[in-house]
Every structure is written in C-alpha cells, then in structure tokens.
Hints:
Residues 138-224 form the DUF2293 domain. It holds the Pfam family DUF2293. α2 (96-142) runs antiparallel to α3 and α2 packs across α5. The chain has two domains: 3-104, no CATH class; 123-225, no CATH class. With 227 residues, the protein is α+β, with helices and mostly antiparallel strands. It has helices spanning 61-70, 96-142, 148-161, 168-174, 177-192, 195-200, 205-225, and strands at 14-17, 34-38, 41-43, 53-57, 75-81, 86-95. Helices cover 53% and strands 15% of the residues. β2 (34-38) and β3 (41-43) form a beta hairpin. The longest helix has 47 residues, at 96-142. It contains seven helices and six strands, in the order ββββαββαααααα. Bound molecules: zinc ion (ZN). Zinc ion (ZN) binds next to loops. The site of zinc ion has 8 residues, from loops.
Amino acid sequence: MTASSAPPPGTGLLVIQAVRKKHCAECRSGPLPLLVLEGGVPRCLDCADLGHLVFLPRGDTALTRRSREESTLSAVVVRFDRRRSRYERQGVLVEEAALARAERRCLLDEEARRRRRLRDAERRAAEDVRFTDAFAAEIRRLFPGCPDERARAVAAHASLRGSGRVGRSAAGRALSEAAVVSAVAASVRHVDTPYDQLLMSGVPRPEARRRIAGLVDETLGRWRAAG
Ligand SMILES: [Zn+2]
C-alpha cells in the first residue's frame, strides 16, 4: 500500500470496503467485503470484534451523527476511490440498538418540526384575521358610508397581499391612512366604475384613470360623509 492510499488518520476506527480480494489473516475467511487493517494486516469484522455492528450508509447526516453518539463502539467505513486517489466515506458501522435510538430521536425531531409548522400556520392565520379586522375597522373609520360587506372584502384582499405575514412594522405601514384610502379607491375603481371595461376595450390606462377619476372621487366623498 502506497502512502497516498493510506486511510485518512484521526477518524477513529476505520473499516475498509475491500476493492481487491483479501482474506482474514486470522480466520482465513474471505474474500472480505469489509476489513480492518491492523498493522497492515487485514482482518474480518468478527476477528476485529466489530462483527456485531450494522452498516448505516452515508447520506442522512443527523441520523449518522446521532447513531455514533448513541453507539459505544462505532467505525467509519471507507473505500478507496482510484480515480480520485483517496479514501471516500461510505457510511458508518454502529450498534443496532444505537441506530434504533438514533432513528427514534430523528423521528421525534421530525414530529416536533411538524408540530411547530402547524403552530406557525395557526399563528399566521390568527395574525391574518387580526390584520383583516384592523384594516376593516380603519376603512369604516375613514369611510363610514362604505358598505360593511365592501369594507370586509377590501380588508380581506389587503390581508392576502401582505398583512401579518410581513411583520408588525409592515402591517403598521399597510394600515396607514394613505394605504387604506388607496385600497378602497382601487376597489371603487374596479367595482363601481367602468374602469375595467375601458381597459379591456383598449383605452390606455392613464386615459381610463382620467375618465373615471370623477366617479371615484364622488363615491369616496359620499362614503366619507355618510355616517
Ligand atoms: Zn477473521
């Protein structure tokens, strides 16, 4: 074995996935799929007292880390990659009970994450409802004549577009008088004027806006005044 193909040091117990056919120096079994080198001499896992361990392929970082934490005895499995001229990690050997405990911990984590996601979703839904209520209340304060249904529809729409999801300060900005007036005006434009028909018939947007501006102002003025 050349220096460049020596297994990486400092990784604890190393088990090698044999590339060439080797037999155990002690019990002569083989060819060995997995072997341990002790003083350059190959031994099978049983003779190296690792026969009771189970193989966990690499890939699941959390499960691998926890399995090794739970396992009194563990080993890193490597294979020599000729093309790259170096040993590559293939997985670990751990105690079966340790693997089971690690899997349980990962499942519990997954369950905890699932519950946290549910709580987050519920909190966001509650925030959206609070935001919608606050927005509707602000519409009614500024436009006492605005029909209740309309105020709620505009508020719900605003909530969909931003609301609790964007945080307290953004929600505060969204509730500013200018933002509320602009949302109500947009609703009036689309619902109470022929604005959309004008756009559909090819009238340029600034011209369409100009034509319906009077109607929008009139409606907003009526809603502001009526108590
Ligand atoms: Zn052996």
